[in-house]
Amino acid sequence: xxxxxxxxxxxxxxxxxxxxxxxxxxxxxxxxxxxxxxxxxxxxxxxxxxxxxxxxxxxxxxxxxxxxxxxxxxxxxxxxxxxxxxxxxxxxxxxxxxxxxxxxxxxxxxxxxxxxxxxxxxxxxxxxxxxxxxxxxxxxxxxxxxxxxxxxxxxxxxxxxxxxxxxxxxxxxxxxxxxxxxxxxxxxxxxxxxxxxxxxxxxxxxxxxxxxxxxxxxxxxxxxxxxxxxxxxxxxxxxxxxxxxxxxxxxxxxxxxxxxxxxxxxxxxxxxxxxxxxxxxxxxxxxxxxxxxxxxxxxxxxxxxxxxxxxxxxxxxxxxxxxxxxxxxxxxxxxxxxxxxxxxxxxxxxxxxxxxxxxxxxxxxxxxxxxxxxxxxxxxxxxxxxxxxxxxxxxxxxxxxxxxxxxxxxxxxxxxx
Length: 417
Ligand SMILES: Nc1ncnc2c1ncn2[C@@H]1O[C@H](COP(=O)(O)OP(=O)(O)OP(=O)(O)O)[C@@H](O)[C@H]1O
Ligand SMILES: [Mg+2]
Prior knowledge:
With 417 residues, the chain is an alpha/beta fold. The protein contains 17 helices and 13 strands. The protein has helices at 6-19, 29-39, 53-60, 79-89, 105-114, 127-139, 165-179, 196-199, 208-213, 220-226, 253-264, 278-286, 298-308, 335-342, 354-363, 373-386, 405-411, and strands at 22-26, 46-50, 68-72, 95-100, 119-122, 152-158, 184-187, 228-231, 234-237, 267-271, 289-294, 321-327, 348-351. The protein has an 8-stranded mixed β-sheet with strand order 8-9-7-10-6-11-12-13, sandwiched between helices. The longest helix is centred in the middle third of the chain and has 15 residues, at 165-179. Bound molecules: adenosine-5'-triphosphate (ATP) and magnesium ion (MG). The site of magnesium ion has 4 residues, from helix 7.
């Protein structure tokens, strides 16, 4: 039997796509199986067909774009050009996932940062890897209206205790608020032993516990009274409760609090402990972006994998940004050892600088204020979580990104900068 022509395939695919939440064009059977098995529980309808990225582009020219699209660039001589052509034909709102055969980091960055690809995996694919890396983009819904509108919520979590999560959260907030001049609040939900406020030289307030116990009290006035200013654009929200007095945190308190904070701040950076308490899990689910901090130790690696496997929230289009902190600490693993064991690249590396970090914690002046490796790491992190441009101190939506908002702006006649 003759193979269907491109236009016949297009008709078939168009019919399928009307109900497909995920459409994939893959070039080999093993990868198809890994994708099918890896995403089966997350995606109600998966349509996979055997085609190259060029063939996929020809088909998608004539059919509606799915919510999530997977394409395969294996064997392509000019994969970036092929993806650029694809970006001309898919809807800006489509989340594009890419499978290929190249393993280098620069290539990965070009895809995810410059082209706006949601995630990239290279072959051979394993179903666990597909679930972990492609799952977040498949599970995410486009940002919707409703309670959660306004600023961006970034949840910073340590893989285990003492890896530097609070240090990273505080320095990220400092950079966003004081240097990029975005209204930023560092929120510490650990009302007993949290140290986030201290790290910025800020104070804990008194209203947070009451708000968590009685979310109906949370309104703009509460935010105004409870947020403690550190500088003009940087505030902290933290508690300082006696450990003996256990707060009775109400269900939905996290949601109510974040909704109120988002109305007032461009960025809410939450220092969320990894402990499985309902409030912490609620915050992780509601964040737009998770940041997972680890140090170069075995226990950190083991827990990082566990945390990466947690279900993702509806607003999370990307997997957690992985920060390797304290790289170079005595007795620590190397970056290569960690990446090999995790079977993934870390996104941000922050060096071990005990004198700088120790002094700044004591003085309440952020380490990121001093130039060097620590500051560079925080700058990179800010760019990852907030679309901050490399060059200047302003937030820039990546208008050169073909998939996503860049395309949208072009369509409305605004040239990418
Ligand atoms: N890059 C770094 N170089 C050197 N020391 C660091 C670095 N980052 C953090 N530290 C130090 O590591 C210790 C733990 O940091 P921090 O309190 O931020 O970790 P944490 O993950 O929030 O811990 P906890 O589990 O207690 O909340 C602190 O003494 C801090 O000064
Ligand atoms: Mg901490």
